[in-house]
Amino acid sequence: MRPCPSSTRPVARGPASSPRTRIPPVAAAGALALALLSPSSARAATLSPKDVQVLGKVFAFLDPAVATDGLSAVAYVGGDEASRADAEAIAGYFGDGLRVGGATLRAKPVDVASLGDGSGFVAIVAAKGASGKAVMAVATSHKILCASGELDQVEAARCIMAIRSDPKVEISVNRGAASAADIGFAAAFRMMIREF
Fold first, then answer.
1. How many domains does the chain have?
2. Which helix (H) or strand (E) holds 140?
């Protein structure tokens, strides 16, 4: 064993350790700090906890507004572990229930193939990759809101609403998709959203 140039502690050498692969502790700590603070690690799910809080406020602006306790399906693509993990994270952001006026909304991860006709759900939140014809068919037939963190899916009319709260709150609504599902919004809310 040879002493490390910056300390008198011995450094083990072997197949797993060489002068080229050794990272100084200060550099490793800095890299870890940067990884933990990067936007990509802070936003593991397609919707953040703050996005879900914004969604709760949106329910109060539906016309008619959600007035009774209900269950929101957080739809995921069966067999896609990333989609399922996203759905579980989003459902977790609802906690013990999201307060909407006098109502409480709970969330449950549901495979898109198990949505059925949507009865029993007051809304669908589409997890990563779950927006699509099947989700919109359920939203349209049962007249319930479909929300997503994937703006491109809303632009393609595969979901009704996209929500982003970082760096500022942005709510985008596909007017055609909302109309097809007979989803209306209070007039005051229309001034706060971007419709296309």
1. 2
2. helix 133-142
